[in-house]
Amino acid sequence: MKVSILQFPGTNCEYDTQYAFEKLGAQTEIVWHKSESIPADTDLLVVAGGFSYGDYLRSGAIAKFSPVMQAVKEYASKGGKVLGICNGFQVLTESRLLPGALKRNENLHFISKHHHLKVENNDNTFLKKLDNGDVVNIPIAHHDGNYYINEDGLKELEANGQILLRYTDAEGNIQNPNGSVASIAGVCNKEKNVFGLMPHPERAMEAVLGSDDGVKMLEGFLES
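== Phosphoribosylformylglycinamidine synthase subunit PurQ ==
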């Protein structure tokens, strides 16, 4: 399997992402944002976390104009699988590849810690190795992780099974760290080939570092 990983000025999780997928046996390639194409053998395209363009204007607001994003849109429109993690999720919402928006955390502070997530929908490539109701422990690290969507949009997400993950405690009870609507931590598009989440599964690959729950999350892509 070939995983291509986007890199913008300010991206800082591309090598963590590369390590995570290579640990799972995938081949990887880092793609600079000025590229006008995606490697032809790409099976999964990851928009990695960090602070693209220093989060100026809004997180992901400038990155969406990078040359590579047109190729990303074309790749996704043909059914290519895309995963946006943290800032990558922000880039995908700004680019309208995913519904909703990410705004400043409710408490106005940067949050960096492990946090539990409950799997809401595993009927997709990303989470198929997990069961609905499973709770995983995954690091979060964001300032603008407060997911927003209006009431009609939320109903549509629920009806289409597009809500992937919610923030909870270890028992699966809602515990919202940033004010996200309906405690949403991750969503996908209607076609279920574009995925986004604020938590960092690529940082949960080693039990000795606090959790290896990210392994099952990312393994789903390897069996697609």
